Each structure stands twice: as C-alpha cells, then as structure tokens.
Amino acid sequence: MSTDNVAVNTATGVGGNTYTTSVSNDKLTTQDFLKLMIAELKLQDPTSPMDSQRMLDTQMKMSSVNTNLQMIETMEALSNSFTQSNLSNAANVIGKNIEDGNIGENGVNKAYTVRSVESNEGEVSVIAQQMLYVEDQVKDNNGNIINYNVNGEILNESGETTGQKVALKNPGEVILENGKPVILDENNEKVVGHEYEMAGGVLPVYSDQLTTIPFSSITRIF
Q: Which of 3, 57, 114, 175 is deepest in the core (most CB within 10 A)?
C-alpha cells in the first residue's frame, strides 16, 4: 500500500505545539506506521519528547495485528479450497448409492441414492432418497415389466389397481410356485394358468422424502 494514501491530520495547541489529531487509512501497514512515527517525531515538543518505549510497543502491536490478519486470510483461503475439494468429490457420487452407518427398522443399514449435492456455510452435504426395499420384477406375457405396489396390487398404466395381486412374503419379495410368481385375484384366490413370469431382476423402491446427509457421514459408496 502506498503511503501517499495515508492522511495525517494535525492541529496547533496552546503554546504553539503541533500534534497529530487523527490518521485516516483503510489499511495501515508497518511501513505506514513508521512514516507516521517519523512525522510524529518531527512534530513533537522538544521539551516533552515522546516515550520511545511506548512507540516501540505500538509498532509491535501493529506488526502483530498485520500478522494475525495475514494468518486469517490464509486460513480462509485454505478453508475455501477444502470446501471446493469436498464439493467436487461429493458431485462424483451423484446417481450412486451410499450408506451413512444408520440402521433401519428392518435391522439393515439404510441405503440411499444421491440426487444432488449442496454446500451450506462450508459444510458439504448430499441430497438423497432412501431405498426402502428392492422389488422383484415380474413381467407379463408380452415381456413388459408390470408395476405393483407395496401390497402387491398390480397397477395399470394409469396407476390404478387391476384387481389382481402378486403374492408377497415381504414388501417386494415375490412368492414363487414352480418357479413362477403366485398371482391372486380380488378374492385373494390363486389365479391358475396365468402368464406372468419372473423377469430375473430387482428394482429399488424409494421414499418420497429427500434426506440431507453430511458428506463426511458417508460410510460406503456402491
């Protein structure tokens, strides 16, 4: 910083002595302080000189303040760099499945699929949907994967129940008989001779709610 920007205001007191009344500067450096001290020495009363120890103490304080400010700026730069690095790493898990170490009601680790990431006051988090369970896929005689709800009720393209159900042991776990899914009618009676088959895959079923998870809390990515 140029010392030309340092404004030193002086005044003349009783007896004709000149003294400094104020110093105006947006950011004083140690060099600025030395210039001011020299100006103060030139303006001091020869019969009542300034205390050199007091001037030295003031200079030391100025130096300490400058050092602390530089340290704060360095720490802020490191913090911003660390946050950006975490944000970049977190962005790499979008679309992937994660665990955060929490156990669900079924005694199994909770699993989520990451939908997006965010940074709030330096803390990086992922926005994810919890996978409630995986659903056995069933296909019709045309090879199309059918939709059914948690109760096994088969849904049409409009999301309405058709009156038939896939028999389930647990949510998403189809009961098989001779390698084929058991299908029930509206009276919960087995449908004989149906043409539904197992598709040989599973599909995650997600919660409707989004969950915010600190990136540092992720214990597994898969």
A: 114
